[in-house]
Design a protein that fits this description.
Layout: E1 9-13, H1 19-32, E2 36-40, H2 47-57, E3 64-70, H3 75-81, E4 87-92, H4 100-107, E5 116-117, H5 122-137, H6 141-160
Parallel strand pairs: 1-2, 1-3, 3-4, 4-5
Bound molecules: 5-O-phosphono-beta-D-ribofuranose.
Amino acid sequence: MTEQQKPLVGVIMGSKSDWPTMKHAVDMLEQFGVPHEVKVVSAHRTPDLMFEYADQAEERGLQVIIAGAGGAAHLPGMVAAKTTIPVLGVPVQSRALSGKDSLLSIVQMPGGIPVGTLAIGDAGAKNAGILAAQIVANQDAAVREAVKAFRTQQTQTVLEHPDPRVD
Ligand code: RP5
């Protein structure tokens, strides 16, 4: 439903193979009711599309871009180089190096072009979705309330299940 409204968050990834990871970011945006769009945009296979996407993001009304990539993960940094919209980078867990290559490719940006880098893999994607919602929440009371409700529920779940041996 939130995908049909004018998107505030753009979720892009270097390959279709990144989707099982990046889905966790989208799940959170859905949960918080944040309008978003999802697209494969590759720094290496579709470089012109990447620049066009970054160039047009602001005028299209995007407030945050979540960019996931693995291996030589240049997508988040290159998108950040072409826009002043906050870019959150998700290092996808690569097969060869377990995502350490992805992490270092994304996190080691030169001073002046920030990328907010999350953890490797599913947790990073999930947190990117939450963080993007928190950014949108600065100007959106409904999203703010949804994030707060999520936090409260999460805390309650832990408190109500203190014994790790019992489901
Ligand atoms: C990166 O290369 C993608 O982000 C992906 O994580 C990785 C492998 O891509 P595929 O070969 O699976 O398409 O650009």
